[in-house]
Amino acid sequence: MRHIPPHNLYLGHIGDASNTRLIRETGIAALVDLAANEKPVQVSRDTVYLRFPLTDGGGDSRALLRAAIEATAALIRSGTPTLVFCSAGMSRTPAVAAAALALVTGLPPQECLALVTRDTPADVSPRLWADVLAALAVPPSPPS
Question: How many angstroms separate the CA atoms of 5 and 22, rounded?
């Protein structure tokens, strides 16, 4: 699990999310699960758990991608210690985290992707990244 300062944002994989001791010691209060091919993680009652089952190769709906990005951005804005994770933490995790940071900071998505993948292995699917960029272009839904 790695921290993305200055935000209360952590990126990881299913093993990190399943490690209740690590979650507790780090003070993680919210988990954003992006793994379509893993079972949901069991969390304590006081932990926010959001699941957006995304595929690694792209092809997810823009609405699902946008929801994952906006929810993650909302958690970042609120200062909630948040772990974003998928199976290996190398494609969906950095892609969604970078898009959320782009919404929060106003920086270009590619710059945010470079930030979250600096000094760590990453293998973001080009098709997924293209879908994420397309989802970012969709304006947020107006409140009802």
Answer: 18
Q: In whole angstroms, what is the distance from residue 58 CA to residue 132 CA?
A: 9
Q: Rounded to whole angstroms, how far apart are CA atoms 4 and 109?
A: 15
Spatial contact of 53 and 105, defined as CB atoms under 8 Å apart:
no
Fill in the amino acid letter for 141: S
Phi, psi dihedral angles at 30 (to 5 degrees): -145, 140
Q: Tokens in use for 44?
A: 């304590």
Q: What domains sit in the chain, N to C, each tagged with a CATH number? A: 2-137 (3.90.190.10)
Provide the whole-model pTM.
0.93
3-class SS at 55? coil
In sequence order, which residues have a C-beta less than 8 Å from that of residue 105 and are 6 or more positions away?
112
> Which ranges of 19-90 would DSSP assign to H, the alpha helix?
20-26, 62-78
What are the per-10-residue average pLDDT scores of the chain (144 residues)?
97 97 96 95 94 91 96 98 97 98 96 95 93 83 52
